[in-house]
Amino acid sequence: MTMQEFDKAMTRCGEVPRLFAGPSVVTDPTRHSANFAAIKAEIDAPKPGLLARVLLRVGVSEDTVPLVTATPALRRSWIASVGLAMLFALTSAGSNTSEGADRIVVFLTLAPLLPLAGVALAFGPKVDPTYEVALAAPIDGFRLFLIRAMTVLGGSTLGLLIMSALMPSGGLQRIAWLLPALATTSLAMALSTRFDPLMAAAGVGAVWLLIVTMSVSASSVADAFGPVMQVASAAIASAGAIALGQRRRRLDIASDR
Amino acid sequence: MTLVTPVPPAHAADDVDIIRRIGRGDRGALEQLYDDNAGWLTVRLSRRCGNPELVDTALQDTFLTIWKKASRYQPTGDVGAWIWTIAIRRLIDQLRKHPPPSPTAAIAPLADVIDQEVPLALGHTELGEAFASLDPELQAVMAATALDGLTNSEAADLLGIPTGTVKSRLSRARLMLKEQLR
Asked: Which stretches of chain A score pLDDT less than 50?
């Protein structure tokens, strides 16, 4: 008797493994059918998309992922159209120095409107096909609103930051849209607790365009997006966030309608 | 209520045909393969893991893997052997995700495998006697590597011990077996 014979005898198990269960196997029929039901359910389950897989990978809970990925503003078409619009804004402006300044004005003016539009489109009966489902679901409406708004805000801010980095010149001025974007979004979210999200966003957007047009025509681009606007934006963003926190009950009631 | 089902005889040609049908997306074939094999798989997985939930998940994952991989199946030997290599690795995946609390000294690891499967392989021969003379912990690493065909690191996850310990126990076991079999 040798080790070769021993190894050969042992590997017989790998060749005919079912014989090694024994002469008969005892099956609990409930467990047997429950396991097959689970297999069928898994086969039928929709495959998570790329975004869902990324979110799961970075530790977002399985319950939250569908809420995020069902956000209408995240739909590929929406992202594509926004991207195209921004690229158009960037490239249609001229390339010499004075027109370069025009280009950055266009960018800085439009950039805060993107997250704003995204948040407006992330929630509400007019735009959200899952709105009725969300109402019937036992989820905190405020939490849902926040999750979706943050998703859109995060996504569009990331996109805008990338575009800022790609701009050939402008220095720090290229991200002068960041605080205004937070301010308009936070204000619109706070107003959404009382008004329709679309109306709130449209109002805030209109006021933003008015302010920018007035201050750019009154002074230079650098001044218009200078320290005064940045500080004011930070203040509005904070105030909006605080108001939002205080009015969360109101949003729940509004979404119960 | 429990059902006692005899182990179905291995009809190699039929089995390969079932896998082919599964590869074409035939649900009925998957269900047939499940009905024929879930029993023995559950028995053998349960001998290697005391947590029925992990065993059930491993069993489900096994058939999900088969569902995905069936179209690329190349018939080499027993279909049961192919299924078992998938099943034991899905079980090890589960054990890696949910490592059991430190192994209790009271229950020797793989005791059921050593009691019920090793004798089937070795019989009441000199080989069986040599194996029986080993310490239980050495028997366990031999069962995991030689019987189940696991790598050292897979055996380590199955037994809940470091890979280095598997290696050293394995070389000790083989040395002692050589002595016995000489």
From this structure: 94-97, 253-257
| Total number of domains constituting chain B | 2
**Which ipTM did the prediction report?**
0.82
The answer to whether residues B130 and B84 touch, using CB atoms and an 8 Å cutoff, is: no
Residues 6+ apart with CB under 8 A from A172: none
Residue B6 lies in a domain: no
Answer whether residue B104 shows pLDDT above 60. Answer: no
Handedness of CA A161, A165, A169, A170 (dihedral sign): positive
Do B107 and B94 lie in one domain? The reply is: no
Domain co-membership, B112 together with B176: yes
- Domain presence at residue B5: no
- Any bridge partners for residue A27, and if so which? B3
Residues B94 and B124 in one domain: no
C-alpha radius of gyration, chain B, whole number: 18
Report the predicted TM-score, pTM, of the whole model to 2 decimal places.
0.59
Last residue of a domain, one of B98, B113, B140: B98
Domain-terminating residue out of B98, B132, B156: B98
Which of chain B's residues have a Cβ under 8 Å away from the Cβ of A43? 27, 64, 67
Is residue B85 assigned to a domain? Answer: yes
Instruction: Write down how long chain B is.
Output: 182
Q: Which residue of A has its CA nearest to B40?
A: A21
CA distance B154 to B138: 16
| Yes or no, beta carbons of A39 and B84 under 8 Å apart | no
Crossing angle of helices B79-97 and B27-48, rounded to 10°: 60
The boundaries of the domain holding residue B34 are 11-98
Q: Is the pLDDT of residue B3 over 60?
A: no
CB contact under 8 A, B127 and A22: no
**Chain B residues touching residue A22 (CB < 8 angstroms):** 7, 43, 116
Buried/exposed A222-252: b ≥16 CB within 10 Å, e otherwise: eebbeeebeeebeebbeebbebbeebbeebe
Residue B37 lies in a domain: yes
| Residue B109, pLDDT score | 73
Residues B80 and B109 reside in one and the same domain: no
| Backbone φ and ψ of A220, nearest 5° | -85, 165
CA atoms within a 13 Å half-sphere pointing along the CA-CB vector of A12: 15
